[in-house]
Design a protein that fits this description.
The protein has 13 helices and 17 strands. By secondary structure, the protein is an alpha+beta fold. Helix 7 packs across helix 10 and helix 10 packs antiparallel against helix 13.
Amino acid sequence: MIEFYNEQVKTYIERKQWDKELQVENFVDNDQTKISWTSSLKNFLKRHIEMHFFPRNVVSAMYRPFCKNCLYFDEYLNHGVFLMPRIFPEPELENVAISVCGKGGSKDFSPFIHDLLFDLNVQEACAQCFPFYTYEPVESKSKNLIEADGERVGNYIRRENISDAILQKFQEHYADRRITKEDIFYYVYGILHSRSYRERFAADLKKQLPRIPMVDDFQAFSQAGRNLAELHLNYESGKMYSLKEIVTGTLNLKVEQMKYPKMGKNTDKSRIIYNSTLTLDGIPPETYKYVVNGKSALDWIVERYAITPDKKGKSGIVNDPNDWCEECGNERYIIDLVKRVVHLSVESVKIIEGLPELTF
């Protein structure tokens, strides 16, 4: 794609020498098997900007809850990187961020936590992002200014987004000097999962960003948030729920489209038909109580881990989750993932239902 784009730049420059009125819209080749034009990419062409491929820009990113994709992260080829270069600038730089639904969404409010780049629509109505750190390249400001209010990490200055003033406020309010900024961050994640919080402020959460109260039991919500984060961030390596594997004939581990079996007019969600040779049985009903962005975590897995051709255009690109299994070196990756997501869902529901009522 980059090679094709650069050829377009070269040809466009040549054409403009004798056709001064040539417009980019009338010039570009819209062959979808070669390129996907955006308004920003056309502007770069108009400005004669060439692209270069950098292997380090290939990273993992969260496309939908519990569903990673490979991403080429680049300021030119991604249509709108927003503030992500300041939040997850490089895979080696640690960070965690809480995402919530944007304003005006129709689905119930839900939070999610990330430790890598994520898509704008990982949450409904354009996800809003609250990271623990932000990073700024060293060369962007004078050395004296940036080192005064941040910590040097490689080629970046790292800043904490929970201020010293907020830390002091929490420590004084709860009369506990042991409270840390990390405790407050996970406290927020716990509060956002509280059912009493989400029910009490449901109307407000549709219209504005969440406001965080200082509840009576800080430690309960902070520890719950920390436990939830551990489950959600480590979803690929966490414990697996003991589902029964029902094999018919010779076992095939390739997946095309998982589905729930039909029982007359009803759907049996205690089982997943993985493929024609394998069914996973014994999914507890509590699994479906843990919901992110309008679907249960398991429903996201069933929907996204399927062979899907490009439906919007004629690019010929096919997403095949079996390729991801090969890259991970684990042909049972998706089967194990189903079991892990069932476990984390059941445990998440236990933690959420165990939270105290919201009093402050």
